[in-house]
Design a protein that fits this description.
Blueprint (H helix, E strand, L loop, with lengths): L1 H9 L14 E3 L6 E3 L2 E2 H7 L2 H10 L5 H13 L5 H9 L6 H15 L8 H25 L12 H10 L5 H14 L6 H11 L4 H12 L7 H9 L5 H13 L17 H14 L6 H17 L5 H11 L7 H22 L26
Antiparallel strand pairs: 1-2, 2-3
The chain binds coenzyme A.
The site of coenzyme A has 16 residues, from loops.
Amino acid sequence: MVENALATKKTGGLAGVIAGQTAISTVGKEGIGLTYRGYDIGALATSASFEEIAWLLIYGELPDETELNHYRQRLMQLRTLPAGLKQALEAIPATAHPMDVLRTGCSMLGTLEPESDTHTQTDIADRLLATLPGMLVYWYQFQYNGTRIDTTSDEETTAGYFLHLLKDKKPEASLRRALDVSLVLYAEHEFNASTFAARITASTLSDFYSCIVSGIGTLRGALHGGANEAAMELITQFKTAPEAEAGIRKMLLEKQKIMGFGHRVYKISDPRSDIIKLWSEKLAETAKEGYLYEVSAAIEKVMWEEKHLFPNVDFYSATTYHFCGIPKFFFTPLFVMARVAGWSAHIIEQRKDNRLIRPDAVYTGPMPRPFVLLAQRG
Ligand code: COA
């Protein structure tokens, strides 16, 4: 029993456990790399748009120009929200977290347009990619400004579409591309917790929407997707770099976790962080609160000096989104809008060669004992 318990502690949180096969991405090979379908994330983030990446992940190859144009047109045509979904969104209170809005919106869409032979898994993946931004902003504008927005738009990219809906005007090119790059970076990450949750749900032969809802619920937590919001909360506590350095040293002395740092798989650096950091720096030059970039850089410096911990993708995504004028509580939902591509690819892959995912546990409870009737307990 002791030996088994030790084995479990060593592999706590399933660290280092190989839980299946995938042809979709690699994470942390040689401690640093990230590839989608064999392509390096650096090249993808420099030259590809989010829609190309979604296609690559879901269909397995990069689209050619005609395929990409058709795909963009298709997603644009799928942006209309059904009346029943709008009613459900209007019933969600303003006090709800936007992650709850996406979780509920996805679930509601699943009741209105359930998976079937004529509404297939890829139809649903496309529909969710197209409607998640609209669901979020529809709810937001209804609850916060009392307006029922039209969720159609002539913006071709998901990033441009989201910003257009949110601000009700055409976004600047730099903001549109910054968000587009961030969606590319967030789109996929092998057997991370939310993808694994989606795969577990798929492994029970559940429907596509249920798999995605599992993913959304799992992504919400601060140790996973919720870290970008938590990082923003941290960064905005400080007004200057020296203040941030002192504050972080104090937090580390108090054994507090610094959100947006560390990673289960990457050991040297998170390759997505350097890419999004450049965007944060670029946008800071003209942003109203550009000093927050200096604050972030100071936090990064202290974390390296004190703990040898590097920023993960969430840390500089936070200021990048802030400089795009996006409210903090939309940061994790943006992660969902991107990761739905990766989740979809994984659900499809899991279904192709399925076996129920059901691990074992080491039992640490009482030894077998006789049941005592209620009247005799006491
Ligand atoms: N701030 C301070 N210390 C941290 C830390 C952080 N962000 N991340 C890890 N550490 C420390 C832990 O305290 C622990 O120290 P100890 O061995 O002295 O107890 C050690 O590093 C290992 O951390 P642990 O939490 O056990 O690693 P993990 O692999 O289970 O967790 C994360 C990985 C990502 C959950 C963890 O790094 C974390 O909580 N980061 C902050 C949340 C975050 O940014 N999540 C997004 C991930 S992309």
